[in-house]
Amino acid sequence: MSKPLKQIHLAAHFPGVNNTTVWSDPEAGSHIEFSSFAHFARTAERAKFDFLFLAEGLRLREQGGKIYDLDVVGRPDTFAILTALAAVTDRLGLTGTINSTFNEPYEVARQFASLDHLSDGRAAWNVVTSWDAFTGENFRRGGFLPQGERYSRAKEFLATANELFDSWRGDEIVADQQAGTFLRDARAGAFVHKGQHFEIEGQFNVPRSPQGRPVIFQAGDSDDGREFAAAGADAIFSRYSTLKEGQAFYTDVKGRLARYGRTHDQLLILPAATFVLGDTDAEARELAREVRRQQVSGATAIKHLEFVWNRDLSAYDPDGPLPDIDPDLGEHTIARGRAQVRMYRDPLATAREWRERAAANNWSIRDLVIETGSRQSFVGSPATVAETIDSFVQADASDGFILVPHITPGGLDAFADTVVPLLQERGVFRTEYEGTTLRDHLGLAHPDADAPGERVAS
């Protein structure tokens, strides 16, 4: 008997806190004006996507102590955008990244519970930690936490937030006007939490939201991050967009669920995926090359090379050869706390490899960064892209994809108009929303209010 077709989950990421975005393209729009976010969200909802996703930028980007203008920065507050989008959409899920390193559980739980009410059950929280040293300087504690402590705090942060969400059962409000009784239980929302990172007590003032709790996303790729997702997340983002790597990640993370009493369908794996469409595969490949050169300017190439060399390379020509000096292995990195630094565990070995590849291919610094950096995940005609996406999901390399267009706000339009209908014809993507909440879209059960924090590791 053949295996039943998996249904594909699709979401849309409004980029802007990385150099995926080609903000200099004539077709690009504002990353601050609400009209851009509204256009993007309406396109995603028209295509029947599960949700829209916003990353978070808590500070302008810097390297070597200087702000640089390689990415789109200065995005408005996540909650303000998502709340406004709730008013111009009806079914689309609204997912926001909020940091657990610098915020407090009561504040974040209250904001997400409020968003879930205002959107009629469409809120989701992408729980992240931060090790950006320069971001930490914006906050009272300053600096950044070591990785182990970051995840320890994040686990307790999420457990505490769940206790707050679950402090209301959902039946406390009677609003009996004749009897003059509003609450059945005067202790509704009462909580006490005493732990390593948080010691709080009081009454949570937002009643149980339509989804019980907002959907929880997680984005960590480290072993700690994968374990954190297996313990308490509803979905995990993945950076693996090739079939083999995707299958390995899928198998690893799904294999961790049993130890927390969870089944495979209780955690979705959703890689981020860029795309370039053309009338033909050849046209799409040519356009993809042009897009990559737009994404990696000369200044961008130098900054990326500095992640490995840990030196100021601003005097080097991005269209010239790689530096003949070796990376600086000093303790203080030029981009302290940046995730890219962790990608290169052995800078000397990386530098040797890159020099060899550049010499063999006659690559400049910019050529090298383009060739070794991330590429568009799906490139081709709409038919090719639809077939590739479907094959990845059916082969258990993912449960779907979070699409990241290189142009905003209109970069999602072509995908919605050409690829989505082909996936619908294949019978692997919805033609209409069947439910009203984000949990409905994702196939997730409503959480039980009688078991607060039940899905979080202690």
TrEMBL record:
PANTHER family: ALKANESULFONATE MONOOXYGENASE-RELATED (PTHR30011), C2H2 FINGER DOMAIN TRANSCRIPTION FACTOR (EUROFUNG)-RELATED (PTHR30011:SF16). Keywords: Flavoprotein, FMN, Monooxygenase, Oxidoreductase. Belongs to the NtaA/SnaA/DszA monooxygenase family. InterPro entries: Diverse_substr_monoxygenases, Luciferase-like_dom, Luciferase-like_sf, NTA_MOA. The keyword Oxidoreductase applies. This is Nitrilotriacetate monooxygenase component A. It holds the Pfam family Bac_luciferase. FMN binds at residues 97, 151, 222. Gene3D superfamilies: Luciferase-like domain (3.20.20.30). GO terms for molecular function: monooxygenase activity; oxidoreductase activity, acting on paired donors, with incorporation or reduction of molecular oxygen. Residues 24-395 form the Luciferase-like domain. It comes from Streptomyces avermitilis.
